[in-house]
Amino acid sequence: MHLYNSGRASNQRYLSKENVNTNAKDAVVTDVGAHIGLIGGIGPAATDFYYRRIISAFADRKTTFDLTMVHADTPTLLDNLRQNNSAEQVAIYTALTRRLVAAGAGCVVVTSIAGHFCIRAFEEVSPLPVVNMISEVDRAVELRGFKRIGILGTRTVMESRFYAGIRSTEVIPPRGQDLDVVHDAYVAMASTGVVTSGQRTVFHSACERLLREDGVEAILLGGTDLALVFDEISAGFPIVDCARIHVDAIMKLADQS
Which candidate, 34, 68, 63, 64, places its Cα nearest to that of 51? Predict the structure, then answer.
């Protein structure tokens, strides 16, 4: 793995370095093997989740791969998200992606749900194809047949119903004080990469109310760091794990390569 400190997407193969056209967004992909580019650090637990899951998936396939990671800053992202400053965040992603291009990556993955607030604008200018989480999650929700789901994450993620990109079902955010408390707990957790017992209580209580009072069928984990709190085996209710869906989409592209 290469680590550096601080794309227009299609359904073609993303992952070979011959895919790169550093002057344009409409790169052509060939099948020369997998080199995944990650924009990580936003936050650290989410980055760890992607890294471990990708390694495990390739190990299961007994297949080698290349991975290059660049580091984005969580406080800067959260500040740009709060101000809806897409232009600044896209500029950060674009500069980081140029490092991935130089390292030979064939695609770029933003390892953050909050970080997807400007993903469509980034797709338009990225030097590499972008593996867009939003469209992958919408497709997965539709396949599971849910009609009404709850959502946890940052305030913007919850209030926007995940950036208005989940069209296959009705998305219900926490109400009233729950929304504020979930936002604060999530931001604190994402910044440190550690979940406290108090934060766990906040998230579980919000889920219980969404399930009981709002009649949702599942909870969408609208923050990659929520992998610290929930998994599909122990949650006790259906969850839509956006980070897992995103990684699975990366692996499907790798399999095509």
Answer: 68
- Type of residue numbered 36: I
For residues 9 and 103, state if they share a domain.
yes
Strands across the sheet with 218-222, in order?
A: 170-172, 148-153, 218-222, 239-241
d(CA 43, CA 88): 18
CATH number of the domain encompassing residue 98? 3.40.50.1860
Residue 77 CA, chain-centre distance (Å), reads 13
Consecutive sets of 10 residues in the chain, 257 residues long: mean pLDDT of each?
43 44 41 77 89 93 92 94 96 98 96 94 97 95 96 96 95 96 95 94 98 98 92 92 94 81
| pTM attached to this predicted model | 0.82
Q: Compute CA distances 194 → 45, 61, 189, 214, whole Å.
A: 7, 31, 6, 29
166: left (phi over 0), alpha (psi -120 to 50) or beta: beta
Q: Residue 12, class by beta-carbon neighbours within 10 Å (0-12 exposed, 13-18 middle, 19+ buried)?
A: middle
Range of the domain at 109: 2-133+245-256
Residue 15 shares a structural domain with residue 73: yes
